[in-house]
Amino acid sequence: MRWSVFALVFLISMARAETSDFRDLADGNRAFALRLYQQLAQEPGNLFFSPHSISTALGMTYVGAREETAEQMKATLAYPAVPETVAPLFGGLESALDSIQREGDVQWTAANSIWPHEQFVFLEEFLAQIRTHFRSDVFPVNFNDGEGARAKINAWVEEKTQDNIKDLIPPGVLNPMTRMVLVNAMYFKGAWMTPFHPSVTASRIFHLADGSTLMTPTMFGKLVARYGDIDGAKVLELPYRGDQVTMTVVVPNEADGLAALEASLTPERLAAWQAGLTSGEVKVYLPKFSLTAQFSLPKVLQALGMVVPFDEHAANFSGMDGHPNNLFISDVIHKAFVDVTEEGTEAAAATAVLMQARAMPRPTPEFRADRPFMLIIQDRPTRSVLFAGRLVQPERAE
Q1: What percent of the chain has pLDDT over 70?
Q2: Which among 27, 55, 28, 13 has a CA at the least distance from the CA of 349?
């Protein structure tokens, strides 16, 4: 079984709150996750990403944002605090998520690092907040040797992600104008509370949105789970061992109904779906699937309202170096992988943000995920959306 992995990278180049308040941050992250999902879902095909990773990595950058740059990031990312006080909230949230592994009987680790240009001076206050609250290591590098710096950063990412994320930063991306790379790497490995038995996995029909069908390997199990038929969709919540992290699968009643469900997706709608579930035995049919997705996110984030941070003439990250209009975000790259099997779920993701110098007795109910569906993996106590996606086109059976 592969490790679940999440990695986020921020490339920065030239151009006091209480930790108990982290639940406001988790709520904001969930709202951002669903808005981001709706934007990404406008493109056809399968989808998988880690909103928690993206929010965390952008959070490190937000610490250094000021004025309109900070205002737009705060509104878009739904952060509950200004840059000067947000870092302890991230620290509190990450400490709460540590219980996923400690009490949830799954494997979960998060690691952060920052890679400043050894010849560029960043404010010690900024670096201290990243070190302390994001628990980040600091590795100075010389971006005049872009390929050398790239090799070091990619090697760190590979190590932290159990070799699931390779060559996160592609050749030619780092250059002498790069001033810092901020990296967030996470992995998650969760076994189902009740696993599916491989011997009953078989090729079964999957109905595509266009009316056609294909045969795809589909797992089956008679499981105790939370289930409901709500608002034109069947909703299933499958717990991982420890019952702290869950996967919610939402299957529309019609094969072409996923788009309408996605368009109505809000934190309130998700909460209503989950509140309407009841626990009992369910006959579950769920495809085995693996999928990989990659995105460049600036246009998506700009559509959500985060415009100024990408403007080399207007961005203000003076909380990083003391100089306004000196640093800006030039790109945000995200890549994610998920594998759902009889044993459980494993996933991987990586994000790179480039900042650059200007320049009742009744029959047992059935849950069949046999048409395009949505999936959301959450930490139950904090309600943090760790991963989200959809399966539109599974693999054909051999």
Answers
A1: 90
A2: 55
SS3 347: strand
| H-helix segments, 296-388 | 298-303, 318-321
Angle CA(15)–CA(128)–CA(386) in degrees, nearest 5?
A: 85
Cα separation, 78 vs 206, whole angstroms = 37
Nearest one of 260, 203, 237, 254 to 371, comparing CA atoms: 254
Average pLDDT value for residue range 58-81: 96
Taking the C-alpha atoms of residue 240 and residue 246, their distance in angstroms, rounded to an integer, is 6
CB 307 within 8 A of CB 72: yes
The residue assigned the tokens 């009316």 is: 211
**Whole-number Å distance between alpha carbons of 371 and 392:** 7
Q: Compare 153 and 348 and report the one with higher pLDDT.
A: 153
* CA torsion through residues 154, 310, 94, 318, sign: positive
Q: What does pLDDT average to over the chain?
A: 87
Under 8 Å CB-to-CB from 74, ≥6 apart: which residues?
62, 82
Cβ contact 97:26 at 8 Å: no
Q: What is the pTM of this model?
A: 0.89
Alpha carbons 4 and 183: distance in angstroms, whole number: 17
Cβ(359)–Cβ(80) below 8 Å: no
Q: How far is the C-alpha of 110 from the C-alpha of 183, rounded, in Å?
A: 11
How far is the CA of 20 from the CAs of 28, 63, 80, 104, in angstroms? 15, 19, 13, 21
How far apart CA 231 and CA 220 sit, in angstroms, is 25
**Closest among 153, 198, 192 to 171, alpha carbons compared:** 153
265 in helix, strand or coil? Answer: coil
How far, in Å, CA of 346 to CA of 373, rounded? 18
Query: What are the C-alpha distances in Å from 42 to residues 78, 191, 231?
Result: 21, 31, 22
**Rg of the chain in Å (alpha carbons):** 21
Distance between CA atoms of 19 and 133, rounded to whole angstroms? Answer: 10
The rounded Cα 197 to chain-centroid distance in angstroms is: 29
Task: Note the helical H segments in the chain.
Answer: 22-40, 51-62, 67-77, 83-97, 99-102, 124-133, 146-160, 258-263, 267-275, 298-303, 318-321
Cβ–Cβ < 8 Å for 77, 62: yes
